[in-house]
Amino acid sequence: MKTLTVDLGSRSYPIHIGAGLLTDQHLFKNIIGNRRPVLITDENIAARYLRPVADSWKIPESDHLILPPGEANKTLATLESIFDFLMKRRCDRKTVLIALGGGVIGDMVGFAAACFQRGIEFIQVPTTLLAQVDSSVGGKTAVNHPRGKNMIGAFHQPRAVIIDTDTLATLPAREVTAGLAEVIKYGLIRDADFFSWLEQNIDALQQLQPTTLIEAIAGSCASKSAVVSADETEQGIRAILNLGHSFGHAVETATGYQTWLHGEAVGLGMRMAADLSVLIGSLSADDAQRINRLIDRTGLPNQLPANSDPQRLLELIYADKKTESGTLTFITMNGIGNATINKGITDQQVLQTLEQFR
Amino acid sequence: MKTLTVDLGSRSYPIHIGAGLLTDQHLFKNIIGNRRPVLITDENIAARYLRPVADSWKIPESDHLILPPGEANKTLATLESIFDFLMKRRCDRKTVLIALGGGVIGDMVGFAAACFQRGIEFIQVPTTLLAQVDSSVGGKTAVNHPRGKNMIGAFHQPRAVIIDTDTLATLPAREVTAGLAEVIKYGLIRDADFFSWLEQNIDALQQLQPTTLIEAIAGSCASKSAVVSADETEQGIRAILNLGHSFGHAVETATGYQTWLHGEAVGLGMRMAADLSVLIGSLSADDAQRINRLIDRTGLPNQLPANSDPQRLLELIYADKKTESGTLTFITMNGIGNATINKGITDQQVLQTLEQFR
Question: Which of A335, B135, B197, B293 could in theory staple to B103 by disulfide, Cβ–Cβ 3.0 to 4.6 A?
Fold first, then answer.
């Protein structure tokens, strides 16, 4: 087991990464102490992990809440059903919510913990690669509004993150690949050595080689932790975590969140960010080629969906909440491992980049 | 105009208190800068103040949201209608919500601001005495759950509090009296001089004498600010603000929140807290008499509703969220102006106190 710490003063917390942690009674007992755990998961995860986790961690069935799965249920209505459950079960401020599942469960349970009695503790137990390397760390919680993703939420840090790499063995290959997009992102934004390491180990990762997986997840979480520690509520530098996301979100929105996984859209978005960085002269063509070659090996998409309209995608980028007060904000690279916030990108440069990927 | 500061580091903010502030363009412009204000109020307040405020502050009608009034509407459903409005009006992170109204509006708009896009700014413009001296300061925001008051919420500090004492002229006398209960509370918990000042000025206050009002509100806000600065999220000392509230909440719950105003219940609760403090030997009988005499002059209640059952009230005190893990927590007084958190009160002492007020 590897343990990292997210350094946030009085709100600091550990990330434990290893095989078999889902049934590690000792670890769980150490974290939870004598607080009361309430286990919240979704129907899909429950079928596989509810029994072993609840048995190991000794959480009585009356304190299990199973939610409908999927992004479409990440709503205020589902949130309300969590509150109803907690009130009915007479939970108090000493209750700890356990978020067992992917990013949807983590975001929603985290937000419920942020609001219930003005804030109780919660533990992230992510079961997808994407959630393990990204959404479970850093305290961003939210539900969706019909008019926009993650529009209603809070910054609320977990008490601990428990990452069991065994859960990846049963994850569909496409979801593993999507998670790898975010892993590669950490190499691009602030860790050239990690990027080189990924070039050597990407095949072992795709084959889910256990020690390589633990190292990749730990490397990703370490980068995310460092950025979050520097800027918890995204006043500035934290935005570099959005590398590839402006392009990616536009593609997701244009395709109605149906055809592409988030990580796939980010994968294409990172290729575009590299292209844009070459265009503005901050990244060499050689480095862009290295980036594209690594992404190629994962099998992540290399072009826009058929019939994509660059002008329409540009409009969606403007409509994104990350585009404040009419100014385009992109994350570009000054070389591999050195991302920066760039407010000087023109519409023309965005359109030119999009055209390259039609 | 008097201005105080709530000292919370980077989240510090001013409280402006004076006559005519609701139409003070200059003050508002100074606070709001070039951010976009959205004005949220309820039907009752709108009838009286929406037009003059919106005109003075130049907030276009399309950015006014008028909610149904009253505690019964302080729900997740109303909160959702705020989010719908903000999304429909394409509000972004630079929007500032203006909460114009009593405690219900302040609590709900504050919570909406806490959650919208993970936190935007808001300004408290309280129009009742209770909200001016209590709920608008300190950042506690919430909505009710059918099974409990203020169960879903956040700590989210306003950017400023604007208190216009002219609004009290049209407040029903009973609501002024209820507000005075909280004013007296500040004298009891940490400011014996303020208590003495109240003994001399209570009649002028009830007659809404303008300079006396400003002084009383400023004294109350100063005390609340000091306590909030010391313990923003109620890990400890902030609980002294709950003097009289354990008893008071039990009465409110027993009467279904229909017959008593919150301040009235707190008024009786403070008499009980004084009685209990005498019983445990921490307050002299003379001081208890001074306290009761001052409360008498306001006309706040001096006995429990007819048919009250002390045993049932004790159960409600146990069910209150402030009673954690089965331990009774009361705020008692070591003399006037010196409240303390007391975890050593027995059921018997509570029952004996309740009996005195049947």
Answer: B135
Tokens of A316: 């969606």
Whether the CB-CB separation of B130 and B178 falls below 8 Å is answered with yes
The pLDDT score that the predictor gives to residue A226 is 95
**Active-site option among A71, A175, A199, A234:** A234
pTM, entire model: 0.94
Contacts of A325 in chain B (CB under 8 A): 92, 94
Over residues A29-49, the pLDDT tens digits come to 999 999 999 999 999 999 999
Residues in chain A: 358
The 10s digit of each residue's pLDDT in B41-88 is: 999 999 999 999 999 999 999 999 999 999 899 999 999 999 999 999
As a 3-state breakdown, chain B gives helix, strand, coil percent values, each rounded to 5, of: 55, 20, 25
Mean pLDDT for chain B overall: 95
A242 tagged catalytic: yes
Instruction: For residue B81, give Cα distances in angstroms to A76, A310, B86, B99.
Output: 11, 34, 9, 15
Phi, psi of A145 (to 5 degrees): -110, 150
Residue A59, chain B, CB below 8 Å: the answer is no
Q: Which domain holds residue A299?
A: 173-356
Q: Are both A235 and A139 inside the same structural domain? A: no
Q: Which residue of B has its CA nearest to A139?
A: B118
Binning pLDDT at 50, 70 and 90, where does residue B30 land?
A: very high
Predicted confidence at residue A321, as pLDDT, reads: 60
Among residues B170, B196, B219, the one where a domain terminates is: B170
Residues A255, A261, A266, A269, Cα dihedral to 10°: -30
CB neighbourhood size of A281 (10 A): 8
Q: Is B318 on the interface with A (CB under 8 A)?
A: no
Both A203 and A326 in a single domain? yes
B84 contacts in A (CB within 8 Å)? 145
Q: Which two tokens stand for residue A235?
A: 């006043």
User: DSSP label at B100?
Assistant: E
- Whether A184 contacts A138, CB under 8 Å: no
Reported as a single tens digit per residue, the pLDDT across B333-357 is 999 999 999 999 999 999 999 999 9
* CB neighbourhood size of B6 (10 A): 24
Q: What is the pLDDT at residue A318?
A: 87
Q: What's the confidence (pLDDT) of residue B257?
A: 76
Show residues of chain B in contact with A115, CB under 8 Å. Answer: 115, 152-154
Nearest to A92 among B119, B145, B321 (CB): B321
Give residue B43's identity as a one-letter amino acid code: E
Which CA distances in Å does A230 have to A227, A238, B20?
Answer: 5, 8, 43
Q: Is the pLDDT of residue A324 over 70?
A: no
CA A6, chain centre distance (Å)? 16
What secondary structure letter does DSSP report for A116?
A: B
> B231 with B139: CB under 8 angstroms?
no
Same-domain status, B93 and B156: yes
Do B13 and B141 lie in a common domain?
yes
Provide the 8-state DSSP code for A2: E
Chosen domain end from B115, B143, B170: B170
A327 and A244 in one domain? yes
Decide if B25 is inside a domain. Answer: yes
